[in-house]
Amino acid sequence: MTAGVGTPYWTAPEILEGKRYTEQADLYSFGVVLSELDTCKLPFHDAFTSDGKKLKPVQILADVMAGMLRPSFSNECPQRIRRIGVACCQQDPSRRPSAAQVVSMLTETD
Which Gene3D superfamilies does the annotation name (predicted)? Predict the structure, then answer.
């Protein structure tokens, strides 16, 4: 697939870069949604420059594409949800879990 669809902050880096992408891009978006549900805030709400200014959207997207910025999770986030979210938001699509693996991770007992 190569169509540029989606909402930028929830869009996988490979799509932002205009590369071919697979279903793994959806897993990235799922990870961003987990971050959003955890923090109750928009993705990258806590992205600031070194001098404390809020990052501009274009810089956020550039940093996401460069692998320098990922969605954040709160300290109160359940460990399992954090683990899944971080795995889904890996820069390299081949390092993201499959949908079946995410289901397994969500349903495993502690």
Answer: Transferase(Phosphotransferase) domain 1
